[in-house]
User: Which sequence fits this backbone?
C-alpha cells in the first residue's frame, strides 16, 4: 500500500515539472527567437516478484512470464524544440533573420561568448555592432574582408566613424554596406559570421535569448551566411517564437488530468490505510 503512495508522489512531481515547462512556453509565446521545450517521462525501477521460466519438454510444461512491480515515473529529459519559426517584419535594417541553420556569436565586455538566433542589432556611438543587451556581435571587419569560407576565429565588428555613413544595409551573405556621405559611394564595412554546432539540441539555454556551448553540443564551426550548410540572412525582420499555443493548451489539459489522477491515487491509498488503522478499533 505504501508503494502506491510513493508512485503517486512521483507522478505529482513530474506532472508539476511538465506544467512548469508548459507555463514557460506560453509565457514566451511572443518572445522573439524563443525555442519551446517539452518534457519526456520514463518509468522507474521495477521490483521482480518472480522471474521468467523457460518451457520444458520432459515433462512438457509451458514457460511463465516475469512478475514485476513498478515504482512510478521520473523525468527522462527536458528537450528544446529547435524547429525554425516564421519571419516577423520590423522594417529595421539591422534586424536580421537567419533563414536556415546557424547562430550569431556575441561577446560581452569580459570576453565571454554566447550564441543567439535573435538578430536585433544596432551600431553604438563607437561604431560597435551590438545587440539589445549591449554585447558585441562578431564577424569580420573591413580590413579582414573578404571573409574566408571557414575562418577559425572571428572578432567583434566595429566600424570607425560610423556617423559618416548612411543607408546601412545587410546582405544575404551577412555583408554590411552603407553609403559614404563624403563620396556618395556604397562601401562594404564588415561581414557578420554564423556559427554551427554538430548537436544544437545540446546547447544550454542561458536566458536573455542566449545559448551556450556544452560538452555534448560539439565545437563551433564558423562560416559566412549561406555557406557550409548555414542559412542566409534576411534583413528587416526577426525570428518569431516557435511556441504552438494549440499544442500547449492541449498538453496543459492532459497534464492537469494526469496530476489529478495521481492525486487520486494518493487519496485512495490514504483511505485504504485509514481502513486498516480502523481495524484495530
Assistant:
Amino acid at each position: 500500500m505504501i508503494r502506491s503512495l510513493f508512485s503517486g508522489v512521483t507522478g505529482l512531481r513530474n506532472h508539476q515539472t511538465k506544467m512548469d515547462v508548459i507555463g514557460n512556453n506560453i509565457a514566451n509565446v511572443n518572445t522573439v527567437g524563443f525555442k519551446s521545450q517539452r518534457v519526456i517521462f520514463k518509468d522507474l525501477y521495477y521490483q521482480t516478484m518472480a522471474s521468467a521460466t523457460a518451457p520444458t519438454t520432459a515433462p512438457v510444461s509451458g514457460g511463465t512470464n516475469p512478475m514485476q512491480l513498478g515504482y512510478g515515473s521520473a523525468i527522462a529529459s527536458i528537450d528544446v524544440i529547435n524547429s525554425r519559426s516564421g519571419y516577423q517584419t520590423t522594417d529595421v535594417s539591422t534586424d536580421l533573420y537567419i533563414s536556415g541553420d546557424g547562430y550569431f556569436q556575441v561577446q560581452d565586455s569580459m570576453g565571454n561568448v554566447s550564441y543567439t538566433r535573435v538578430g536585433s542589432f544596432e551600431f553604438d556611438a563607437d561604431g560597435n555592432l551590438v545587440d539589445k543587451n549591449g554585447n558585441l556581435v562578431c564577424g569580420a571587419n573591413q580590413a579582414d574582408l573578404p571573409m574566408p569560407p571557414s575562418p577559425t576565429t572571428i572578432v567583434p565588428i566595429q566600424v570607425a566613424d560610423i556617423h559618416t555613413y548612411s543607408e546601412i544595409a545587410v546582405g544575404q551573405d551577412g555583408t554590411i554596406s552603407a553609403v559614404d556621405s563624403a563620396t556618395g559611394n556604397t562601401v562594404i564595412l564588415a561581414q557578420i559570421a554564423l556559427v554551427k554546432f554538430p548537436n544544437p539540441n545540446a546547447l544550454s539555454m542561458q536566458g536573455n535569448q542566449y545559448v551556450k556551448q556544452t560538452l555534448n553540443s560539439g565545437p563551433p564551426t564558423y562560416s559566412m551566411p549561406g555557406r557550409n550548410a548555414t542559412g542566409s540572412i534576411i534583413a528587416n525582420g526577426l525570428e518569431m517564437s516557435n511556441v504552438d499555443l494549440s499544442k500547449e493548451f492541449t498538453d496543459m489539459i492532459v497534464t492537469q488530468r494526469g496530476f489529478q489522477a495521481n492525486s487520486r491515487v494518493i487519496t485512495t491509498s490514504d483511505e485504504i490505510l485509514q481502513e486498516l488503522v480502523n481495524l484495530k478499533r
